[in-house]
Amino acid sequence: QQAVLTVPVVVHIIHNGEALGEGSNIPTEQILNQIITLNEDFRRSNADRSETLSEFQAVAADSEIEFVLAKSDPEGIATDGIVRVKGYKTTYSDNDNINLKALSYWPAEDYLNIWVAPLSGNLLGYAQFPVSELQGLEDSNNNRFTDGVVVNYLYFGTGFNADDFSRGRTATHEIGHFFGLRHIWGDGGCSADDFCNDTPLASTSTLGCNLRKSTCNSLDMIQNYMDYTDDVCMNLFTFDQKNRMRLVLESSPRRKSL
Ligand code: ARG
Ligand code: ZN
Ligand code: CA
């Protein structure tokens, strides 16, 4: 049993018919860059790991999960793991979930599907929880044909835009959900849990970057990838999050229903 788990990834670029590298038909470089960022964040080799508050350094974990663009497609033919498809509308909301994903999909048993698309409103991305016996995933609305994560093309990769979500952490956050992680504040008040003991209770999400925030009589871990903080302020997963993700990833088959 090897320590590092490697996840084959297919990236579906759902664009508006732009030339390769233009607009929502993002350059291959941006895709490769996001994969590098994911590997840094999940292996805790991210350059900003030293910025994790000293109070939390001891619980910050190398998740020992790595991502690699698929080298063969579902038919066994060599691929670069990137599929480019012209979509049917200019922007997509979460109501378009099923139709968006139906444009291009590889079997969820074998690949992590990442759809990159122009999303409407301020939607950064969204994910589907796994089917699992783990606490907090009981009412997951799982479907293998929609299994994976969706990320707004504007926020894919590190350094491709100039706003608060420019370091590729939207994909890190969504893949955290894909592996069964809940938001750090448990989506409720001080009694709502994220089912990880080493992440302190918090009463709400945190936007921006207030590092010394305390909402439930202890320091909030706002630098966790599973908060809503700006990308530049996020830099850790914890050991309990690592264990939860790896339990999901190692359950075989990961998907328990069709
Ligand atoms: N709001 C989204 C979600 O709940 C993503 C938040 C990502 N945050 C970030 N700093 N990139 O799944
Ligand atoms: Zn989230
Ligand atoms: Ca917790």
TrEMBL record:
What's the domain of life for this entry?
Bacteria
Residues covered by the Peptidase M43 pregnancy-associated plasma-A domain = 104-249
Family membership, please give it.
Answer: Belongs to the peptidase M43B family.
The molecule here is called: Choice-of-anchor J domain-containing protein
The shown residues of the full protein are 59 to 316 of 979
